[in-house]
């Protein structure tokens, strides 16, 4: 079994730490800052950092890679089509890798960046800045159509899959979700719960695919209530789910 915990970084990033207690080897996902990982390793002697998994090239996800690679023998994995510092293994869609003795499948999820990838192992999804709890990443490089297709792919994973994204954006995302679907009881219940969690300083991740399908408007673009809200927003007929998505994303950018 892999134990997973969050190492907070910057103001709202999480570096995911994966531990295999049988070998005392560990891996990290998107270490934008080396310090939280180095601090954990120094506080937990005997652990070996063996893998660094990168989802995309933004600095808050790769900034700590070279320092960590110099200090350890960790192998760096990252998307083939992006400039990833220290990358040893270049990954593309449907590739498979072994991390801590477990198979992970690579899923290409363009949208936030063009080369963005996610790492999937049965029950676990590390999706960087593509799918957030109750939201999705901004479109810095890709098109709404690409991001909608990427999110649809992730939404098709088993519903009990845990979603490990890399930012604590859940509360602001749910406020937007409640504006899109004010009549969705699941969204309102989740907003109330997450409000309490954040007031207490509690992390709101991981989520699950099932919870996202009930409360994340970006995964609900085929729902009549979401389409109607998008149509009201643009004064036009958003006739396809990716058009609904584009309207929601543009709205969220200004929300």
Description:
- This protein has 255 residues and is of the alpha/beta class.
- The protein has helices at residues 35-43, 59-62, 65-71, 144-155, 170-180, 185-199, 209-215, 224-234, 241-254, and strands spanning 3-9, 13-20, 25-29, 48-53, 75-79, 89-91, 96-99, 102-108, 117-121, 124-128, 131-132, 135-136, 162-165, 207-208.
- Helix 4 (144-155) packs across helix 9 and helix 5 packs antiparallel against helix 6 (185-199).
- The model has no long low-confidence stretch (mean pLDDT 98).
Descriptive key words:
alpha/beta, globular, 9 helices, six-stranded mixed β-sheet, 255 residues, single chain
> How much helix is in the residues?
25-40%
Characterize the overall form: globular
* Low-confidence runs: none
| N to C succession of SSEs | EEEHEHHEEEEEEEEHEHHEHHH
How would you write the strand order of the largest sheet? 1-2-3-4-5-6
Overall residue-averaged pLDDT value: 98
Q: Any idea what the radius of gyration is?
A: 18 Å
Oligomer: single chain
List how many beta strands DSSP finds.
14
Biggest beta sheet attributes: 6 strands, mixed
Number of helices: 9
Helix-strand category: alpha/beta
End-to-end Cα distance, whole Å, is: 40 Å
* Beta strand %: 25-35%
Write a brief caption for the model.
The chain has 255 residues and is α/β, with parallel strands linked by helices. Helix content is 35%, strand content 25%.
């Amino acid at each position: 079994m892999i134990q997973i915990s969050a190492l907070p970084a910057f103001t709202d990033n999480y570096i995911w730490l994966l531990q295999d207690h049988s070998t005392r080897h560990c891996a990290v996902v998107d270490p934008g800052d080396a310090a939280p990982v180095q601090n954990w390793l120094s506080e937990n002697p005997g652990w070996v950092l063996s893998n660094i998994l990168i989802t995309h090239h933004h600095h808050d996800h790769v900034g700590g890679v070279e320092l960590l690679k110099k200090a350890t023998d960790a192998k760096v994995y990252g998307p083939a089509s992006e400039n990833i510092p220290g990358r040893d293994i270049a990954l593309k869609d449907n590739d498979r890798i072994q991390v801590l003795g477990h198979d992970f499948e690579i899923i290409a999820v363009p949208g936030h960046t063009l080369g963005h990838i996610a790492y999937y192992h049965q029950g676990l999804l590390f999706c960087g800045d593509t799918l957030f709890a109750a939201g999705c990443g901004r479109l810095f490089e890709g098109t709404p159509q690409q991001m909608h297709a990427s999110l649809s792919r992730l939404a098709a994973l088993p519903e009990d899959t845990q979603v490990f994204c890399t930012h604590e954006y859940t509360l602001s995302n749910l406020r937007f979700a409640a504006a899109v679907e004010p009549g969705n009881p699941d969204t309102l219940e989740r907003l109330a719960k997450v409000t309490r969690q954040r007031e207490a300083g509690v992390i709101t991740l991981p989520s699950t695919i099932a919870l996202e399908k009930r409360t994340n408007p970006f995964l609900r673009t085929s729902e009549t209530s979401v389409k109607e809200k998008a149509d009201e927003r643009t004064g036009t007929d958003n006739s396809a789910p990716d058009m609904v998505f584009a309207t929601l994303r543009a709205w969220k950018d200004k929300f």
